[in-house]
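Let's practice the habit of predicting before peeking. Look at the sequence and jot down your guess about where helices and strands might fall. Then scroll down.
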Amino acid sequence: MPELIVTDIRMPGSMDGLTLLKVVRADHPTLPVIVVSGHIAFMGKIYAQTEFITKPYSFDRVHQSIKMLLYASAEDAKKY
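Done guessing? Here is the structure:
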């Protein structure tokens, strides 16, 4: 099982990143997910344990999101 998923909204094939996010959330509601897009500006939260990053993005922005999501995931795990 991965510790974190990073997906783009636009992907080849029949599934886009938001559909992937819904599938992941159905089975793994606390798995951290980063969704990126250069075509859609999203305002607000998608789900808990989810970050939306617009392109172009910096390494620092992605790094901060990863650290925040993994820390939150670890804190959630301590509750159980």
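How did you do? The chain is about 40% helix and 20% strand.
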